[in-house]
């Protein structure tokens, strides 16, 4: 050691000796006794290192605690938001069905009004034709009467034909009276038919306006419902992508497993007049039903995925997923007291329950959709190979078996045989449940 450095060290020792006096650690053996001298500077280095380690432990524990509290609040907020969204979806769906029924009823009333207008127009045309026939008949009778009158004047002197002419005139007058009454009746019927046609036209116009309002309101409800279900699909789609799974493949797989159909098929009726607004609403409703089916399919997939926490007691995350000491660490390590309960994170079947080199006591659970979970270093295994387990079932106890430096749980998640970060599933569960 250089003289300058030696002097500085001695000065530090002399200054620190008031608070950290020199200590000696004696090491005895059968033949000799040795001692290890701890100078004040050495003690200061040891104390500083211990304080730094202790401070780092406090900071890390605080960060984990804050993260857990934040995750809990976020999960509660997501649960409340999800409940409000589902309630809003239910209300919108009920209102949509009600408006659709009102639109159908309005359409039926409109059709009935159109039929009435058509019948009134037919009656009006018939009355007009009848009136024309009666006017023609009256004209013919008047011409015949005129001829009879003229003939009567010409033959007035002929007494032999006077009786016949009077009888003919009386018959023509009676026919003229009958035709006049029929003409008045036809005219009254025509006026009544015109009034009924006007009334039916007004009713049809009012019904059309009512139908248009219902269709507009129904379209507004469908738009709100479409926006709501679209907002519901996006976080679910993002959740599957975050855990390294293809959402389209997940949807196809679930639909293959839930493809049952049945029930009688009744013919669908269509209006011959056509209605573009209702057709557009039906198309939008079909799109909403497709999106709702996608949301429901996602829900089924989520129920089958291992998204729960394997440890529900207090724990400390001692090793994350990723490279560690130059090698790949395929899971996360969650340290806690020996015997801490370990739970299944999803429904599945136990495919391994026993000892495996490096893992110690190991449990493997095969879930649907190509996912598998592993629980290693257990002190006790509480399930058997081939046993079916549900999410939240206790399957073992935390331990220190296999290649382990202390009691902890080594937890892995694999998708199609490939190890993925289990924290992705745990964080995804906080945004769903």
From TrEMBL:
It comes from Paracoccus halophilus. The lineage of its organism: Bacteria, Pseudomonadati, Pseudomonadota, Alphaproteobacteria, Rhodobacterales. SUPFAM superfamilies: Duplicated hybrid motif (SSF51261). The keyword Transmembrane helix applies. GO terms for molecular function: metalloendopeptidase activity. Residues 327-422 form the M23ase beta-sheet core domain. Residues 6-316 form the DUF5930 domain. Residues 169-210 form a coiled coil. Keywords: Coiled coil, Hydrolase, Membrane, Transmembrane, Transmembrane helix. This is Murein DD-endopeptidase MepM and murein hydrolase activator NlpD, contain LysM domain. The keyword Repressor does not apply. It holds the Pfam family Peptidase_M23. InterPro entries: Cell_wall_metabolism_enzyme (IPR050570), DUF5930 (IPR045974), Dup_hybrid_motif (IPR011055), M23ase_b-sheet_dom (IPR016047).
